[in-house]
Design a protein that fits this description.
Layout (H helix, E strand, L loop, with lengths): L3 E10 L7 E6 L21 E3 L1 H9 L2 H7 L2 E5 L7 H13 L3 E6 L8 H6 L3 E5 L5 H8 L4 H9 L6 E8 L7 H11 L6 E8 L5 H6 L14 H26 L1
Parallel strand pairs: 2-4, 4-5, 5-6, 6-7, 7-8
Antiparallel strand pairs: 1-2, 1-3
Helix pairs in contact: 1-3
Length: 251
């Protein structure tokens, strides 16, 4: 049986998909986001091992909460798409138990497994880091090839999407960037439930000093929650308008 590399588990997650969820944070990520609040999850070093059967056993302890709230299990990270074989097996076993599944991802992983992962996934939380190729590489260490590949693969995904974006002052808190974000995801609009703009914060900055890492956004102020919310409101209104136009065309 394939084992997974595990960072940690949250048993009563409320923000990683619908309802109350058990969140398995998997170890390892190909990105090096400047604002990552779990830099200790980026490499596979020091990870615990867990089997798909152990995932199911842990998850089923909270089955009552899932049924009462429409919750389930979320795989986050790190980057869960970096452990494709394990993820597929764990998702499949959870679906056999009737558990709703969710993958929280940045869209960078083992592309070979995307289609199979989609078969057993009800919800995807997709975190789009930036909308400009060079700026994306400066922020994460990778260009946008990975996210564009994933967005293309999502055309075959039958579940529901939530698009997330961490808004950093001076980087994407402007209309041009938000226009590009909407344009990037427009082909998937029918599958998207909503867009969430998450204000940049510095809650995990102390981990960098503990790990002897440099925090490159040290001089960047936290994002205003109200300003982020204003962008989020406009984007979701425009998303609804795009969906309405599509319905009108096919009517």
């Amino acid at each position: 049986m394939r084992t997974g590399k595990l960072h940690s588990i949250e048993t009563m997650g409320l923000v990683d998909g619908p309802g109350i969820r058990t969140v398995f944070f998997l170890q390892g990520c190909p990105l090096r986001c400047a604002y990552c609040h779990n830099p200790d999850s980026q490499t596979f070093h020091g990870a615990k091992e867990i089997t798909p059967d152990e995932v199911v056993a842990m998850a089923m302890r909270y089955e009552t909460y899932y049924r009462a709230t429409g919750g389930g299990v979320t795989f986050s990270g790190g980057e869960p798409l970096m452990q494709g074989e394990f993820l597929i097996e764990a998702l499949r076993k959870l679906k056999e138990k009737g558990v709703t599944t969710c993958v929280d991802t940045s869209g960078y992983g083992q592309t070979t497994y995307y289609e199979e992962i989609f078969k057993y996934t009800d919800h995807i939380l997709l975190d789009i880091k930036h909308v400009d190729n060079e700026a994306h590489e400066a922020l994460t260490g990778r260009d946008m090839t990975g996210i564009k590949t994933f967005l293309s693969a999502l055309k075959s995904f039958k579940g529901r999407l939530i698009i997330r974006h961490v808004m950093v002052p001076g980087l994407t808190d402007n209309d041009e960037a938000m226009n590009k974000l909407l344009s990037l995801i427009e082909p998937l609009k029918k599958k998207i439930d909503k867009i969430e703009i998450l204000p940049y914060h510095k809650a995990g900055i102390e981990k960098y000093s503990q790990l002897n890492l440099t925090y490159t956004l040290d001089t960047v102020p936290a994002m205003s929650a109200d300003r982020a919310m204003a962008f989020e409101k406009v984007l979701n209104e425009r998303l609804v308008a795009l969906k309405s136009m599509e319905i009108a065309k096919t009517a």
